Amino acid sequence: MNQKELLKQIKTTDSLYAIQKYIGKVIEIRGFANNPLEEELLLLTEEVGELAKAVRKEKYPVDNKKLKNYDSIESEIADVFIVLTSICNSLKINLYDAILEKEQENIERTWQKIKKDVSNE
Ligand SMILES: [Mg+2]
After folding, report:
1. Is 119 a domain residue?
2. pLDDT category of residue 68 using cuts at 50, 70 and 90
3. Which residue has the higher pLDDT, 46 or 112?
4. How far is CA 107 from the centre of its chain?
5. Which residues, chain by chain, have CB under 5 Å from ion ligand 1?
6. What's the CA-to-centroid distance between 50 and ligand 1, angstroms?
7. Whole-number Å distance between alpha carbons of 94 and 13
């Protein structure tokens, strides 16, 4: 099955597991399945940087002449998710299980939001 056919099969009701499986298949078709983990981590870092740039572009003033060089926040969020999911596949980690396990820890934690003192700013 090619990438277009695989993409057509994705539905809004698909599970995270199905999306992770899809990403694994297309990454293999694109020839990146055996990239070293270090390279994937570098790519993830790069994509997080691009996301930061996209947020800065949309939320804070930037040089208007450079606007066309940046992608949308949605596009960069997707890139980060795709690369992160691909790293999970490389490490044989089920992202759904990992999130569930982590959230089981998180819901037991006491979260303290520290109030920022802005009186000196
Ligand atoms: Mg990107």
Report:
1. no
2. low
3. 46
4. 23
5. 47, 50, 76, 79
6. 5
7. 18
Q: What is the pLDDT of residues 73-110, one digit of tens each?
A: 999 999 999 999 999 999 999 999 999 999 999 999 99
Nearest to 90 by CA among 55, 29, 39, 30: 39
Give the range of the structural domain holding residue 15, as residue numbers without chain letter: 3-106
Separation of CA 39 and ligand 1 centre (Å):
15
Count: domains in the chain: 1
- The three-state DSSP-derived secondary structure of 81-121 is HHHHHHHHHHCCCCHHHHHHHHHHHHCCCCCCCCCCCCCCC
pTM: 0.84
Q: Flag whether 112 is in a domain.
A: no
CATH of the domain at 82: 1.10.287.1080
Assess if residue 117 is contained within a domain.
no
Instruction: Answer yes or no: is 80 within a domain.
Output: yes
CA 83 to ligand 1 center in whole angstroms: 10
